[in-house]
């Protein structure tokens, strides 16, 4: 029996009661379609904060605060990836997955996705050391992002990998974001949008590897269901992050910050 419940953001999610652990697993195509359907319908590109951003309706201050708070999420990514690596007994998997840590942390100082995000912070007029310190991050954003690390730590390896499948939808979002920023926020130099550009091919590669692993290792209906639930939880974490930014800086500050 399945019932609809509401998340903190007001979005519905599927909760399962009395699942039949003896049910045959879905065929691979049906399982992938289930993951895609649930992830796409809940992905944070639908959030009002992102909609306003891509319509060019965020003020300079609002854009800055999104960059500041989102940086904390960026810092959690290599940490959760290190946890995923630690869960695997397979050297081939570990070699493949550890590349994600290098993608964000870089092979040396001054490289990687975190550095690109700090350059973006420079570009929107923030002090990079202040951003790096995470002092100005909203408590709710910390709670949501730390929840992602907890999710990965506490779930099985296949569920932890499944939670990363929001990357299915990242290439389209990143492409849309670059175009929107170039059009609506010309005060941000185009070369400082490199983080978004770099994620397009990497997210395609990473999501292809992750779905291959999940499909191969979610060998029961129960594991398939738990994998979908992990992905749904990840979308709720991303949504909650934006809820916090929107409540703090967009809705109450929309009139005050207009034209800033």
Q: How are the SSEs ordered, and which strands pair?
A:
Layout: E1 2-6, E2 12-16, H1 28-42, H2 48-54, H3 60-87, H4 91-105, H5 113-123, H6 128-133, H7 139-154, H8 157-163, H9 170-184, H10 194-217, H11 221-250
Antiparallel strand pairs: 1-2
Helix pairs in contact: 1-11, 3-4, 3-5, 3-7, 3-11, 7-8, 7-11, 8-10, 8-11, 9-10
What features would you highlight for this structure?
2 strands, single chain, two-stranded antiparallel ribbon, Heme Oxygenase, Chain A, disordered N terminus, 260 residues, mainly alpha
Molecular structure report:
- The chain has about 260 residues and is mainly α.
- It has one domain: Heme Oxygenase, Chain A (Up-down Bundle), CATH 1.20.910.10.
- The chain is about 65% helix and about 5% strand.
- The chain has a two-stranded antiparallel ribbon.
- Strand 1 and strand 2 (about 10-15) form a beta hairpin.
- The longest helix has 30 residues, at about 220-250.
- The protein is globular.
- It starts with a strand and ends in a 10-residue tail after the last helix.
């Amino acid at each position: 029996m399945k019932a609809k419940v509401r998340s903190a953001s007001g979005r519905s999610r599927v909760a399962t009661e009395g699942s039949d652990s003896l049910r045959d697993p879905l065929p691979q195509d049906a399982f992938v379609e289930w993951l895609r359907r649930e992830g796409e319908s809940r992905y944070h590109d639908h959030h009002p904060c992102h909609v306003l951003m891509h319509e060019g309706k965020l003020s300079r201050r609002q854009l800055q605060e999104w960059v500041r708070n989102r940086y904390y999420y960026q810092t959690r990514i290599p940490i959760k990836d290190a946890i995923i690596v630690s869960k695997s007994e397979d050297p081939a998997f570990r070699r493949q997955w550890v590349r994600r840590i290098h993608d964000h942390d870089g092979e040396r100082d001054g490289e990687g996705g975190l550095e690109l995000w700090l350059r973006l912070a420079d570009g929107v007029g923030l002090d990079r050391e202040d951003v790096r310190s995470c002092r100005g991050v909203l408590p709710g954003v910390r709670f949501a992002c730390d929840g992602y690390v907890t999710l990965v730590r506490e779930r099985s390896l296949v569920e932890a990998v499944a939670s990363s499948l929001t990357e299915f939808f990242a290439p389209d979002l990143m492409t849309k974001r670059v175009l929107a920023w170039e059009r609506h926020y010309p005060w941000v130099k185009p070369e400082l949008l490199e983080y978004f550009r770099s994620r397009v091919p990497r997210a395609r590669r990473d999501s292809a590897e992750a779905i291959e692993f999940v499909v191969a290792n979610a060998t029961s209906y129960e594991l398939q269901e738990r994998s979908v639930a992990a992905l749904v939880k990840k979308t709720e974490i991303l949504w909650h992050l934006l809820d916090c930014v929107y409540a703090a800086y967009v809705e109450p500050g929309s009139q005050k910050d207009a034209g800033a």
